[in-house]
């Protein structure tokens, strides 16, 4: 089966970046040391070349990921290898953050690219939860990461058919958590909102669907594709939590145009190189902070703090301020971890250089 790569997002700007003697392809799925790609001649399984292996050894962010445009080189034995990852226009990167045994943050500060060259980031949050209607803190985090990636976030409150009462109020709360972002209620099983979601993918635009297990991501992808392209499972009745049906990220071309990347359920996702994304999600707090008496106000008891005044008056929800503080602390922590890792790499580099210089000096006659 042959493909018109322009329908996958290939254009003249990308063609100008293609190394001589190679052909373009887009990564549909990755495995250890290999990838499934879509080229003009069809889908291929290709292994990583030496250039890619060296780059990814130095920085995991350089590893090929779903959505990447890559250059394939034909080897003498007749097979292709993945020779180079072309420059990304956008990249959704999560930091290497987890919780340690005492509940603190741990990790190496390195990032992992979840999806590349994405135009739209669909943040899927189920409208029915075991303890609450929606996890607003998770929505804030994912929307911040979406802005930081370079893509446009859109929040989808899924399974709206299961929400018996108060849907408008829920959507209003989500809009407060994601200011300036389109928010839509979607029922993939009934088709409500699905055409509207599909309108974001006109032409050759690419979207990634992010959210927890049980959010209906794969069901939404199937509804957009008009076919059963992804396996789905029911949410567990005991606790309302979803099962991890999707175990890998996959790029799926849609019959009506556009592409969508389905992802496994996300339980924890750390920040990586975060700055503008958090500021955009919490634009209301940033605006209040500009009214504080002191420019370096920490919003923790200083006189003339407009943020605390808004909190006391009820203008600013306490949950939202706590969420902002949490993401700010995490962003600072991740920056310090990244800086420490870079310093260590530089120190190791100079140790090797010094060792080579000393050995070279001893070998002289």
UniProtKB/TrEMBL annotation:
<dbReference type="GO" id="GO:0019843">
    <property type="term" value="F:rRNA binding"/>
</dbReference>
<dbReference type="InterPro" id="IPR004881">
    <property type="entry name" value="Ribosome_biogen_GTPase_RsgA"/>
</dbReference>
<feature type="binding site">
    <location>
        <begin position="211"/>
        <end position="219"/>
    </location>
    <ligand>
        <name>GTP</name>
    </ligand>
</feature>
<dbReference type="InterPro" id="IPR010914">
    <property type="entry name" value="RsgA_GTPase_dom"/>
</dbReference>
<dbReference type="GO" id="GO:0046872">
    <property type="term" value="F:metal ion binding"/>
</dbReference>
<keyword id="KW-0547">Nucleotide-binding</keyword>
<feature type="binding site">
    <location>
        <position position="305"/>
    </location>
    <ligand>
        <name>Zn(2+)</name>
    </ligand>
</feature>
<feature type="binding site">
    <location>
        <position position="292"/>
    </location>
    <ligand>
        <name>Zn(2+)</name>
    </ligand>
</feature>
<dbReference type="GO" id="GO:0003924">
    <property type="term" value="F:GTPase activity"/>
</dbReference>
<feature type="binding site">
    <location>
        <position position="297"/>
    </location>
    <ligand>
        <name>Zn(2+)</name>
    </ligand>
</feature>
<keyword id="KW-0694">RNA-binding</keyword>
<comment type="function">
    <text>One of several proteins that assist in the late maturation steps of the functional core of the 30S ribosomal subunit. Helps release RbfA from mature subunits. May play a role in the assembly of ribosomal proteins into the subunit. Circularly permuted GTPase that catalyzes slow GTP hydrolysis, GTPase activity is stimulated by the 30S ribosomal subunit.</text>
</comment>
<dbReference type="InterPro" id="IPR027417">
    <property type="entry name" value="P-loop_NTPase"/>
</dbReference>
<dbReference type="GO" id="GO:0005525">
    <property type="term" value="F:GTP binding"/>
</dbReference>
<comment type="similarity">
    <text>Belongs to the TRAFAC class YlqF/YawG GTPase family. RsgA subfamily.</text>
</comment>
<feature type="domain" description="EngC GTPase">
    <location>
        <begin position="116"/>
        <end position="267"/>
    </location>
</feature>
<feature type="domain" description="CP-type G">
    <location>
        <begin position="106"/>
        <end position="269"/>
    </location>
</feature>
<keyword id="KW-0963">Cytoplasm</keyword>
<keyword id="KW-0699">rRNA-binding</keyword>
<comment type="subunit">
    <text>Monomer. Associates with 30S ribosomal subunit, binds 16S rRNA.</text>
</comment>
<keyword id="KW-0862">Zinc</keyword>
<keyword id="KW-0479">Metal-binding</keyword>
<dbReference type="Pfam" id="PF03193">
    <property type="entry name" value="RsgA_GTPase"/>
</dbReference>
<keyword id="KW-0378">Hydrolase</keyword>
<dbReference type="GO" id="GO:0042274">
    <property type="term" value="P:ribosomal small subunit biogenesis"/>
</dbReference>
<keyword id="KW-0342">GTP-binding</keyword>
<feature type="binding site">
    <location>
        <position position="299"/>
    </location>
    <ligand>
        <name>Zn(2+)</name>
    </ligand>
</feature>
<dbReference type="GO" id="GO:0005737">
    <property type="term" value="C:cytoplasm"/>
</dbReference>
<keyword id="KW-0690">Ribosome biogenesis</keyword>
<protein>
    <recommendedName>
        <fullName>Small ribosomal subunit biogenesis GTPase RsgA</fullName>
        <ecNumber>3.6.1.-</ecNumber>
    </recommendedName>
</protein>
<dbReference type="InterPro" id="IPR030378">
    <property type="entry name" value="G_CP_dom"/>
</dbReference>
<feature type="binding site">
    <location>
        <begin position="158"/>
        <end position="161"/>
    </location>
    <ligand>
        <name>GTP</name>
    </ligand>
</feature>
